[in-house]
Amino acid sequence: MSARIVASVVIAAGILIGTSACGFGAPQATLIQYDPSDGVSGDVGDVAIRNAMLLSADGETATLLVTAVNVGDTAESLTVQYDANGKKVTELVTVRANSSVTIGAKNEPNVTLENIDTAPGDLFPVFFQYGEETGVQLLLPVLTGEQPEYQGLLPAGAPSATPTAIPSAPPTEAPAH
């Protein structure tokens, strides 16, 4: 009788160990940090750079679209720097204390990058920094602005993406019963 109990306990322990450790060696997806959006992110001191991207129809002029979140108690003058025809171009955007600003959105500050010579689909380096904080260079994806959420945000004078009408089949009458 005791051999039967011992065998049952051993079998139960084997089943328990075998089924509870099935994910032991597998990476946990919730621990992997990634940007669940079209843009990329980075941090500069108290300012978080979120969902940064460029919108361009021609690859020469682009709108910077990025949300800067300042968790600090003082307003910061965020430096945005990029290369244009071999020269560094610097733009400044103020981010108020304990707030955020979406640069490039409607009714928000705008930064237009000119003479960048990059094609939609490429990655373009942009440097973000403020004060004495160590800056961060991010490789921003260059998008065409054809996605509905980005329409109307292309640089002024750039051709905007025009939606294409998709023909639909004429409605058919349902058979009478």
UniProtKB/TrEMBL annotation:
Residues 151-177 are annotated as: Disordered. Residues 155-167 have a biased composition (Low complexity). The lineage of its organism: Bacteria, Bacillati, Actinomycetota, Actinomycetes, Micrococcales. Residues 168-177 have a biased composition (Pro residues). This is Uncharacterized protein.
